Structure formats: C-alpha cells, structure tokens
Amino acid sequence: MITSLADRAETAVTWMGGTTGVVLALAAVALAVLVVAAIISALADRNTSGGGKLLWIIFVLWFPLFGAVAWFVVGRKGHLNRFLGIDKGRARHSVPVSVGQHSDAAARNGGSLRHA
User: What is the mean pLDDT of the chain?
Assistant: First the structure.
C-alpha cells in the first residue's frame, strides 16, 4: 500500500497538533497552579502588610509567570518587602536600638563626654 506525501503530511500535522495541544494545556495548567499558589501564599504571609499583599497580588496577576516566580524567590523572604516599606511592623529606614546608645562611650573617653 503506497501512501501519498499529502497523506503522510496530514498525519504528521494531526499528530503534532495533538501533542502540541497537550503540552500547551499542561503548561497552562501548571501556570495557573503557580499563580494560584503565589496568590494564596501572599495572602497568608503574616509579615507583609495589607497594602503590600495587594501590590504583590496585582503584580502576580499582571505578570503571571514572572510575578509568581518573583513572589516565591524574593517576596516570601521579605528583603524586598522591607526595602519597599511594605513589611508589617518594620519601617524602611529603621535604626537598631543599640545604635548611638553604647554604654562604654563615656568610659573610653575617660568618663568625659567631650572628645579630645
């Protein structure tokens, strides 16, 4: 039985369309799961303020792949949140309590607060 080139091409296109369709459907489902997981994780994060959560959710929805990956890589750790000032209870320019309050400063200067 001899098949024509057109029949073989049609079979190949049909097979590729089915395979490509399945791969694209799996990729879409994986992306949807990643986005939903990022949104749930952002909402459940206790260290991010309400406004910060809203910003992360908008970012994840606006740029689904990049936003979701950025949340899991950077957002959950809180470094960027603290820098942006959206970390609950931590100001962007906070100073540790010990800065400028060293008890041995007067002892090093001979008990005097004047500098030589």
Answer: 75
